[in-house]
Amino acid sequence: MPDLAARARTLMDLHTAPEILVLANVWDVVSAKVVAGTDGVRALATASHSIAAAFGYEDGENIPLDLHLDMVGRIVEAVDLPVTMDFEAGYGDPGETARRAIGRGVVGGNLEDQNKPLDEALAAVEAVLAAGRDAGIDFVLNARTDAFVGAPRDADRDKLVEQAIVRGRAFLDAGAPVVFVPGAVMREEITALVDAFGPQRLSVIAVPKHGLPVRELQDLGVARVSTGPFTQRAALTALQDATTGLLAGGTLPAGIRSLN
């Protein structure tokens, strides 16, 4: 495996460059190889939801950590790109989970705050960053604030932005290089977050129908856009559509490529 510190530096540079980092999340070795082999892909991100689903578990740390880490390790070994892992909330011990992931070759990770008290969330962020320092790498922590996640449909979105800013700034001050705010999709929300954090410090998720185009996110100063479970859902949609076509008496769709 190439030098971990070098991979971590590469991943960090991809977040701070003016060109937005696009991460189509993967969930197993074949999806990782397909994405890594796509022109323009510079790093990989795993999706905890998708890995759990592949093994028959619900999202939310229901998949055993050993099984989760084994799949992530297989992905790392299968590609020559930096890999960042979705830790969920850290499986009860974010620092130890990060340490074990780094041991499998991971150089970055998402960590959910789950809207826990801020001092508790900061302690988790600091534990992950300390694990990186102990391993001798600049671990690229994508510190996630769940200010928007689970908010009522009629919630005051301006207040959600304010909450995300308070928590995100605290994570940045603690040393996280980038803050992930899933659920922020409107242009004015993303603009406010970039203004508060600075350019190349905000990470968002692409959302079907409602998300801004990647080029627009780049123009706004977003550092990173990922896809979460939506890439797996895109693959499963294609699978179901192909099955439906066959059951209707048709054939497999044209244009299928030999990607495995």
For this entry, give a set of tags.
8 strands; single chain; 260 residues; 11% strand; alpha/beta; TIM Barrel; 8-stranded parallel beta sheet
Q: What's the gist of this structure?
A:
This protein is of the alpha/beta class and about 260 residues long. Helices cover about 45% and strands about 10% of the residues. It has one domain (about 5-245): TIM Barrel.
In terms of topology, how is this protein built?
Layout: H1 4-16, E1 21-23, H2 29-36, E2 44-45, H3 48-54, H4 65-78, E3 83-86, H5 94-103, E4 108-112, H6 118-134, E5 140-144, H7 157-173, E6 178-180, H8 187-197, E7 202-205, H9 214-220, E8 224-226, H10 230-247
Parallel strand pairs: 1-8, 2-3, 3-4, 4-5, 5-6, 6-7, 7-8
Helix pairs in contact: 5-6, 7-8
Shape: globular
CATH fourth-tier homologous superfamily: Phosphoenolpyruvate-binding domains
Mean pLDDT comes to 97
Which bin fits the share of residues in helices?
40-55%
For the sheet with most strands, the description reads: 8 strands, parallel
Given this structure, which CATH class is correct? Alpha Beta
Structural class: alpha/beta
Flag low-confidence runs.
none
The strand order across the widest sheet is 1-8-7-6-5-4-3-2
Instruction: Compute the number of helices.
Output: 10
CATH architecture: Alpha-Beta Barrel
Give helix and strand order, one letter per element, not per position.
Answer: HEHEHHEHEHEHEHEHEH
Rg from alpha-carbon coordinates: 18 Å
Number of domains: 1
Number of strands: 8
Q: What amount of the residues lies in strands?
A: 5-15%
Separation of the first and last Cα atoms: 23 Å
The CATH topology is given as TIM Barrel
